[in-house]
């Protein structure tokens, strides 16, 4: 209801507090507000009666007319708004139709009816809420289960109360009494104007009760919910004919109630009692011994049992078990049945019924019973006390002497006990069983006499008990007698619950859904199962079909054995002869034992699969969630809740909004209480009553108000306790325990949280969820290591990172964040900074040491975050990035889980949609299944009408819905791409472009046109008019282009993986064009720049690459604030791409300028694949500069000794060990050790997605065998080499170096074949070498760093062919390029080769490399001296040329 929010100010009762000196005097009301009393009265001028009452001396008597919940609220000084709740109650509408009478008579009828209804409902625990009198009808509204009046059995009490009212409202002037009862969730609270308020219930349950009362005249009817929750015998109910009711579409089955049952209802067919074999066996054994010892002396009967007592909860099957005991009793034994009610609990009530039924044979022939006593006793011989005992105990009317009085307890007299014993012994000669239902209603006098009757040896009792707690001490003492055997009865096992359902339906199989529902909700109570089955059948959710056993099994039905459904113990006719009885009891016990040990599986296998059986079938529209479970725990929860104060209730409601687990800071924000001590006391109370418990939070390093770190749990701690660390205790609350200041709490019971949450009205839920959402928006900030600033994007809003224009709302939010800076500083003062650990991390990284100490030759390492570098040539290094300790991702994940809940609760559907997509974006790579689930939920939101009814901003844009769906489908394609499902990813990404209304071109012609168009736009953006093509769109249009560009980037990754390079080039240009239109998404621009650099580099458009690199540098300068995890990874990929471009382009200094930042970021981000790629490139640079020791250190730290060890990294380690050996002759790992590595792992090194490491390894192994002329050993590696050469080597920079290695090997093989004069092989090898030179000529133009080696091998090929002039020319070209590119190894090798060709080489150095390959003559890399250099391999020449 509007205006009934939980955070409203107090009502008039809080401001107006009258007090009294005594009951007869009235003081001036104490008013807390300023102003005169008369001014205060003016507020009530609209109702002069109120002012008149307040000025009188009798106004406080009006309190009697206030309902009890309101009275409690006034006494506790509680605002009326706190009474507003959503509760599950039972509503009774009672309508009385009277005859046409005079006004005086009508007033008398109404007064009498009111008194009757009020007294009866109050005694039953209900509340008379409303009385209405129309022309002829008198209507009452009664409610059970209101605040402070909930006991769990409201449904049963309401039915009995209604029955009592129908019986008592009997008057000649009353025509009819119609009663309708309904159970359900309703609004309970104060409604109406402040001057005319009333406490009432509003909801479907109240409406249904009113309609039931109107539709079924002069009947007492109830709905299905009341029928199920009453837990009363179904014999008290009968189904009524359906009558349409206004405003109630599906009322469900309607039942008429009568606590006396319906005699005309047919009795059910006897079926076996299940799971009670032990109880039946105990009864049979006790009865057998009692009958065997019936005529024995009393001394031998001390330990005999003459009664069994079945004790169990309502509807657990006690009555059915009693009936089975009676059925198993020999037919020669007399049976007496007695069913007690509360009204029959009067002195000697049960005993007199036993006497009437055993002595006279009927419960209605009292005179006959008295005559039986007269004839069986000699009254003249009886004393006055004995006559008095007979009158009192049996209810007779025997004459007593005048003035006779007996003040003592008549049952304490031994003569009385002997008299009763003799009467029954003389009247009952054979065994008689007395079956007593509802033993709680046995009076104390009858309990005492019951033990006397058991001494007669002719009476055996069977008693059923439900609740022992309500029994008196006398009854409990009698119950503990050794003559009575107590047997607790609990719920049936799950297997028998299924059979119970089959018996009720008279079917042979039931569906598994029904079985699971019964097992989860029934607690094994047969009565609950029976009510459920009946209600499902009557409302059409359950039907019976005929099918074969085989088809039933195919449908997944559960089928018990037929013996459990149909067979019972067949009983023979017996006589009073002891031999016949012994045989009978033996037969019964044998059959009970056989039934318990029956092999059910063998019986099922023996059944005919084609036999037709009856099977229960659930309707397709049946919803399991609509079935209410047991309410026992709900009752305890409501009792605990009602015992709390108003403030504790309000605090608990705030906690329920936050979820099962919640932090204290968020709870205090919702409560809005200035007194922290008051909150601490309330928390202590909730801990003490076991509502809340500690979840364990570590606040010693509190880096976020959204994310709470867990603290270690204390073992064996007594509850309640708190094991939070770093919590702040208040000085003025020193007497409170530690758990009063718990910082991280949870509900001890999830059901308690759910029950409390559903007590809130919808408006209250919206208000509290909105406040929780506001808290998350204000305090969801980045971790301390990242500056505690705002996240760059939260719920669709971006912060100002230098690339996007800020909105007014965003500026206001940032100002709010800045205002919290001081609070943030206070929090962070307690943090333990990690500067030393960071310094240690930098020092432990060999990669960064190599760059910073050995290779870098430019000043500075970039600028601090947020400050532009002084020099325009410097690359921003983002040196303060600390991803290793960063908790931003964890904070974001924790925040989005709560944001989704509170956006949904607050009705913020637009923010809910954004939260789903942003959360899914975070989970794409780390938790793909979770991301897919979130996207499905987001699609449900966007397809609902509720979203568009609340979408205020973009609901009128025609393409906006498709745009939202396109974002979902695009992210779903990203999930498929991350999981390797390329076909599904392609479908989703193409579908997303179609939803964006910009589909991917399908034909080559369309692709060419689109490519030309984008190329022209980029040329205009780069050179002609950048301002007209860059940053031209913002707002929703700019966001649209960004989303399309993101989708195209995902397609680019897909096309690269599928080796569709032309499509990849188109998508790279296309996405870059769209990204530049907004020019505001940093992560997107980084990805686009990287893709474009790779595309232009492959097309040998180096000038465009340089242009884009400069744009990337400018982009990094524009970026303000710290990078988040996704942006850091995007920058890392971009810098890696630029680094590799400069490496292959031969720009060593420029590559090193990007090397340090990217190495730092890669180490932080723990990107293993990217790190390996970078390490390999750095190793190539180090090898060219002869930094051998640094190479080995880098290899062992990042490859072989990798913390995330994998076979691919180890393969790279052995590969570069071989490369060092090939280039310098110095050994890191010997050839034999490298060969042993392959023998150990085999071709498993090829099992990775990237086979570059294995291919380089094979090429190096083959080259070494060829160099040392180990031709037999080279056969294995030559096969691998030929496999490599048969694959496509396009556009992977690693393969250029590999082809150069293979080319050298084929040139050496060519020399061998020339010396052997094998013309056929010479021709084949020459053709292979020519093809390789042609391919490498194009590749080396794309990667100039490989040109020196290329020209050296080209010179070698020419010298082999005898063209010495070209050889010398190419050798000189090698020198020029090696010096230009600072390729030290190639310079030494080229000089060594020139000396060899000119004959000036020292003969000892000619075979120096080959000689030091042998295991016993290795050169240790630790002895390498860069200044002394090395002796390279001498390229062999044909023998004919040497001559």
Question: What report would you give on this structure?
Answer:
Strands 3, 4, 5, 6, 7, 8, 9 and 10 form an eight-stranded mixed sheet that branches. Strands 12-13-14-11-15 form a five-stranded parallel sheet, with helices on both faces. It has a three-stranded antiparallel sheet with strand order 18-22-19. A hairpin with a 3-residue loop joins strand 4 and strand 5. The radius of gyration is 47 Å and the shape is elongated. The relative contact order is 0.04. Helix 39 (1004-1024) packs across helix 42 (1061-1078) and helix 45 (1125-1145) runs antiparallel to helix 46 (1148-1165). The longest helix is centred in the last third of the chain and has 24 residues, at 1319-1342. The N and C termini lie far apart (109 Å). It is α/β, with parallel strands linked by helices and 1443 residues long.
Task: Describe the secondary structure blueprint for this structure.
Blueprint: H1 12-15, E1 16-17, E2 30-31, H2 37-41, H3 48-55, H4 68-75, E3 85-98, H5 103-124, E4 126-133, E5 137-144, H6 154-168, E6 174-191, E7 198-202, H7 204-215, E8 220-222, H8 224-230, E9 237-239, E10 255-257, H9 277-292, E11 307-311, H10 318-328, E12 334-339, H11 349-360, H12 366-376, H13 384-394, H14 414-427, E13 432-437, H15 444-454, E14 459-465, H16 473-479, E15 484-488, H17 494-505, H18 512-521, H19 526-538, E16 542-548, H20 549-554, H21 578-596, H22 600-605, E17 612-618, H23 632-642, H24 646-658, E18 661-663, H25 664-671, H26 676-688, E19 692-694, E20 697-698, E21 709-710, E22 744-747, H27 750-757, H28 762-779, E23 793-794, E24 797-798, H29 808-819, H30 821-828, H31 835-843, H32 846-855, H33 888-905, H34 909-923, H35 928-942, H36 945-950, H37 960-978, H38 982-995, H39 1004-1024, H40 1026-1029, H41 1035-1057, H42 1061-1078, H43 1082-1098, H44 1102-1118, H45 1125-1145, H46 1148-1165, H47 1168-1184, H48 1188-1200, H49 1207-1224, E25 1226-1227, H50 1231-1241, H51 1252-1267, H52 1271-1285, H53 1294-1316, H54 1319-1342, H55 1347-1361, ...
Helix pairs in contact: 5-6, 6-8, 9-10, 9-21, 11-12, 11-15, 13-14, 15-16, 17-19, 23-27, 24-25, 24-26, 24-27, 28-33, 32-46, 33-34, 34-35, 35-37, 37-38, 37-41, 38-41, 39-42, 41-42, 41-43, 42-43, 43-44, 43-45, 44-45, 45-46, 45-47, 46-47, 47-48, 47-49, 48-49, 49-51, 51-52, 51-53, 53-54, 53-55, 55-56, ...
């Amino acid at each position: 209801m509007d205006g009934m929010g939980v955070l409203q100010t107090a009502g008039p009762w809080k401001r107006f507090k009258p007090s009294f000196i005594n009951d007869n005097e009235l003081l001036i009301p104490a008013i807390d507000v300023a102003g005169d009393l008369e001014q205060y009265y003016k507020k009530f001028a609209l109702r002069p009666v109120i002012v008149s009452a307040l000025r009188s001396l009798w106004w406080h008597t009006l309190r009697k007319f206030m309902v009890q919940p309101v009275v409690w609220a006034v006494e506790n000084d509680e605002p009326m708004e706190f009474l507003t709740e959503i509760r599950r109650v039972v509503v009774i509408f009672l309508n009385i139709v009277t005859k046409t009478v005079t006004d005086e008579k009508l007033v008398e009828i109404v007064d009498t009816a009111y008194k009757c209804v009020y007294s009866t409902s109050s005694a039953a625990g209900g509340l008379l809420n409303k009385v209405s009198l129309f022309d002829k009808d008198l209507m009452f509204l009664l409610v059970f289960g209101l605040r402070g009046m909930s006991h769990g059995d409201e449904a049963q009490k309401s039915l009995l109360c209604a029955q009592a009212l129908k019986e008592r409202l009997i008057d000649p002037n009353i025509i009819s009494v119609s009663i309708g009862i309904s159970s359900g969730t309703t609004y309970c609270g104060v409604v109406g104007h402040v001057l005319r308020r009333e406490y009432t219930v509003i909801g479907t349950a109240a409406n249904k009760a009113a309609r039931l009362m109107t539709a079924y005249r002069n009947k007492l009817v109830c709905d299905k919910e009341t029928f199920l929750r009453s837990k009363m015998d179904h014999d008290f109910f009968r189904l009524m004919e359906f009558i349409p009711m206004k405003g109630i579409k599906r009322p469900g089955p309607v039942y008429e109630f009568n606590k006396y049952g319906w005699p005309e209802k047919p009795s059910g067919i006897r079926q076996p009692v299940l799971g009670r074999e032990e109880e039946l066996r105990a009864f049979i054994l006790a009865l057998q011994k009692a009958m065997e010892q019936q005529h024995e002396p009393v001394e031998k009967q001390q330990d005999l049992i003459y009664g069994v007592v079945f004790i169990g909860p309502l509807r657990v099957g006690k009555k059915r078990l009693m009936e089975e005991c009676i059925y198993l009793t020999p037919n020669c034994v007399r049976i007496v049945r007695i069913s007690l009610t509360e009204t029959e609990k009067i002195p000697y009530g049960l005993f007199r019924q036993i006497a009437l039924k055993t002595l006279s044979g009927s419960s209605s022939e009292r005179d006959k019973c008295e005559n039986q006593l007269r004839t069986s006793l000699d009254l003249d011989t009886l004393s006055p006390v004995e006559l008095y005992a007979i009158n009192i105990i049996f209810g007779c009317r025997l004459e007593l002497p005048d003035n006779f009085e007996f003040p003592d307890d008549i049952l304490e007299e031994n003569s009385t006990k002997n008299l009763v014993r003799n009467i029954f012994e003389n009247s009952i000669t054979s065994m008689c069983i007395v079956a007593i239902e509802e033993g709680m209603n046995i009076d104390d006098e009858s309990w005492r006499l019951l033990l006397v009757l058991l001494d007669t040896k002719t009476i055996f009792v069977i008693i059923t008990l439900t609740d022992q707690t309500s029994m008196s001490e006398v009854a409990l003492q009698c119950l503990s007698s050794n003559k009575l055997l107590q047997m607790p009865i609990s719920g049936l096992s799950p297997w028998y619950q299924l059979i119970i359902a089959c018996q009720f339906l008279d079917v042979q199989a039931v569906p598994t859904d029904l079985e699971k529902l019964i097992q989860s909700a029934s607690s094994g109570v047969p009565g609950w199962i029976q009510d459920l089955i009946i209600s499902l059948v009557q409302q059409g959710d359950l039907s019976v079909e005929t099918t074969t056993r085989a088809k039933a099994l195919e449908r997944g039905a559960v089928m018990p054995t037929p013996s459990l459904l149909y067979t019972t113990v067949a009983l023979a006719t017996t006589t009073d002869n002891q031999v016949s009885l012994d045989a009978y009891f033996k037969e019964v016990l044998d059959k009970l034992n056989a039934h318990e040990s029956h092999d059910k599986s063998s019986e099922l296998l023996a059944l005919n699969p084609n036999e037709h059986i009856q099977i229960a079938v659930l309707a397709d529209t049946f919803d399991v969630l609509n079935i209410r479970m047991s309410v026992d725990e709900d009752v305890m929860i409501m009792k605990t809740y009602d015992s709390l104060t108003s403030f504790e209730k309000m605090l608990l409601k705030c906690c329920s909004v936050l979820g099962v687990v919640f932090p204290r800071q968020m709870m205090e924000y919702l409560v809005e209480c200035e007194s922290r001590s008051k909150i601490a006391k309330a928390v202590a109370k909730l801990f003490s009553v076991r509502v809340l418990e500690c979840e364990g939070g570590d606040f010693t390093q509190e880096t976020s108000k959204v994310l709470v770190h867990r603290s270690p749990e204390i073992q064996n701690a007594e509850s309640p306790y708190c094991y939070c660390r770093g919590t702040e205790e208040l000085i003025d609350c020193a007497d409170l325990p530690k758990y009063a200041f718990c910082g991280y709490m949870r509900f001890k019971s999830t059901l308690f949280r759910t029950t409390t949450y559903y007590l809130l009205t919808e408006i209250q839920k919206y208000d509290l969820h909105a406040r929780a959402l506001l808290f998350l928006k204000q305090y969801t900030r980045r971790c301390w290591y990242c500056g505690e600033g705002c996240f760059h994007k939260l719920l669709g809003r971006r912060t100002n990172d230098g690339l996007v224009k800020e909105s007014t709302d965003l500026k206001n939010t940032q100002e709010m964040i800045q205002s919290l800076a001081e609070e943030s500083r206070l929090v962070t003062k307690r943090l333990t900074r990690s500067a030393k650990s960071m310094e240690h991390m930098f020092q432990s990284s060999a990669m960064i040491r190599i760059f910073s100490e050995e290779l870098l030759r430019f000043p500075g390492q970039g600028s601090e975050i947020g400050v532009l570098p002084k020099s325009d040539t410097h690359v921003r290094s983002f040196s303060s990035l600390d991803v290793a300790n960063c908790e931003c991702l964890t904070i974001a994940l924790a925040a989005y889980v709560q944001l989704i809940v509170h956006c949904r609760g607050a009705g913020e559907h637009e923010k809910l949609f954004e939260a789903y997509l942003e959360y899914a974006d975070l989970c794409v790579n780390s938790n793909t299944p979770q991301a897919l689930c979130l996207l499905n939920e987001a699609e449900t939101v966007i397809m609902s009408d509720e979203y568009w009814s609340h979408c205020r901003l973009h609901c009128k844009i025609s393409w906006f819905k498709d745009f939202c769906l396109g974002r979902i489908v695009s992210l779903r394609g990203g999930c498929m791409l991350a999981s390797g499902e390329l076909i599904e990813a392609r479908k989703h990404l193409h579908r997303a472009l179609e939803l964006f209304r910009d589909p991917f071109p399908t034909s080559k012609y369309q692709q060419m046109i689109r490519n030309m168009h984008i190329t022209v736009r980029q040329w205009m953006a780069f050179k002609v008019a950048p301002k007209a093509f860059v940053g031209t769109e913002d707002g929703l249009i700019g966001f649209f282009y960004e989303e399309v560009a993101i989708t195209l980037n995902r397609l680019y990754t897909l096309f690269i993986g599928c080796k569709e390079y032309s499509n990849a080039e188109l998508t790279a240009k296309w996405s870059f064009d769209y990204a530049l239109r907004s020019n505001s998404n940093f992560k997107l621009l980084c990805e686009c720049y990287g893709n474009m650099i790779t595309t232009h580099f492959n097309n040998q458009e180096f000038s465009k690459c340089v242009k884009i690199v400069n744009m990337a540098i400018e982009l990094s300068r524009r970026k303000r604030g710290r990078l988040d995890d996704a942006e850091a990874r995007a920058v890392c990929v971009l810098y890696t791409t630029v680094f590799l471009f400069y490496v292959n382009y031969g720009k060593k200094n420029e590559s090193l300028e990007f090397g340090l930042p990217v190495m730092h970021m890669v180490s932080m981000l723990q990107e293993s694949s990217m790190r390996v790629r970078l390490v390999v490139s750095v190793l190539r640079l180090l090898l060219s500069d002869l930094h051998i020791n640094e190479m080995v250190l880098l290899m062992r730290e990042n490859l072989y000794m990798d913390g995330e060890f994998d076979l691919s990294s180890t393969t790279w380690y052995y590969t570069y060990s071989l490369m060092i050996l090939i280039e310098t002759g110095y050994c890191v790992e010997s050839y034999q050790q490298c060969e042993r590595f392959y023998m150990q792992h085999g071709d498993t090194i090829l099992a990775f997605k990237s086979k570059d490491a294995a291919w380089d390894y094979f090429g190096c192994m083959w080259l070494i065998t060829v160099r040392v002329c180990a031709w037999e050993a080279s056969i294995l590696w030559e096969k691998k080499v030929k496999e490599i050469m048969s694959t496509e080597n396009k556009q992977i920079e690693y393969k250029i170096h590999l082809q150069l290695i293979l080319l050298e090997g084929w040139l050496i093989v060519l020399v061998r074949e020339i010396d052997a004069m094998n013309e056929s092989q010479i021709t084949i090898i020459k053709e292979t070498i020519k093809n390789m030179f042609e391919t490498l000529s194009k590749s080396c133009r794309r990667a100039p760093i490989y040109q020196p080696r290329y020209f050296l091998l080209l010179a070698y090929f020419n010298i082999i062919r005898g063209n010495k002039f070209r050889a010398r020319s190419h050798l000189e070209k090698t020198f020029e390029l090696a010096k230009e590119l600072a390729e030290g190894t190639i310079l030494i090798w080229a000089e060594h080769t020139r000396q060899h060709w000119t004959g000036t080489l020292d003969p000892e150095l000619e075979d120096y490399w080959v000689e030091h390959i042998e295991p016993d003559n290795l050169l240790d890399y630790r002895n390498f001296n860069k200044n002394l250099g090395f002796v390279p391999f001498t390229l062999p020449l044909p023998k004919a040329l040497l001559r």
